Amino acid sequence: MIRVLRDTARGRSRPGRQWFDRRRWWAFVVSACALGLVACAGPSAGTSSPTGSTVGGSSGSPGGTTPSREARSAAGAGGGGGTAGVRTVVDGLDAPWDVAFLPSGDALISERDSGRILRLPPGGTTPSVLMTLPGVVHRGESGLLGLAVSPTFATDRYVYAYYTSAQDNRIVRFHVTGGGTGAGAGTGGGTGTGRGAPPRVDAPTPILTGLADGVIHNGGRIRFGPDGMLYAGVGDTGDRSLAQNRERLNGKILRMRPDGTVPPDNPFPGSLVYSLGHRNVQGLAWDAGGRLWAAEFGQDRFDEINLIVAGGNYGWPVVEGTGDTEGGRFRNPLVTWTTAQASPSGIAIRGSTLYVAALRGQRLWEVQLAGATVRGKPQAVLTGTAAMGRLRAAVDAPDGSVWIITNNTDGRGQPRAGDDRILALR
Question: Is the pTM for the entire model greater than 0.85?
């Protein structure tokens, strides 16, 4: 095993980093390039295989089927229908970050920079603005990030959001009622404005405040687990000393009741900390066996897929990637990539396949799960002529597809006509 000591306090470098909005300039370039759109978008990232790290575990795997990798690798990127199992759900989005689904099938989409939450009805193509979340502050990687819908939405009507305010990162919840947002509400006729009066959205109520915020490493993914608890990936905001400090909530995965209080069965009594030693977790998903998987940004060498256990310590800032566990103190990842191959953000699990959206790597990774371990080498799709640029998240959709969020308007990509968009993979 290779032990990697983190000997620098700097964050991962981002060549060519620009914080201004380049979409207007790219619109001009696309117009000039006309049919040369793909060429104007710049070269795609490479497709070399990652380093896989496998540990022992059950050989069984959850059921389910996944679409053909070869078909999706050759899929077209065009609007509307697409080909070979890939289609465009919606385009023209502004730095989208997450998607959460209401029982009605409506998709709620967060936009990081604008602070807007959009509502897209099932079968719709034009979203409407559900709300602009008050108090969102966007600086660098901060802003409106993760969304989650209460598993008991039918009775409590709560939607949750993780965002950056002027003081901190925080998690809030708010009621959404009426407007066809309940189960069995039907379709919106493709306009995003149907089904009677618009929903009513109450003022947000904070359930967790005081998380350190920064220009980088804010984490931000929130998901309800099969146990009904809310989990949150919280980044170290560039202060790597926080990750091993159990008294601080940054650099952790947190587990809380829906009202933000500490569950009595958390691994550290009286603490929201579920696991520690994280740099910047932005992907959370559970397999059919109830196991929690997480995607994490490395610094300069290795990104990670980890199997999360209660109370586990995943090594940052002592170890990056696979390394010395110091006699079991740290847990090793099951999959690693170089940071150029991945920079993984949101993840989803369908059947026995873990889907990993890659930002810098500009591809979608598929990892085959086998119980508490992985099988074979991860495979890259949405590459070559099918590449769609930076990918922010993979989300399990209620119609049986996996939605993929592009992120070319986030200040680090090369926007093309129609960016950003959400794709659906069958």
Answer: no
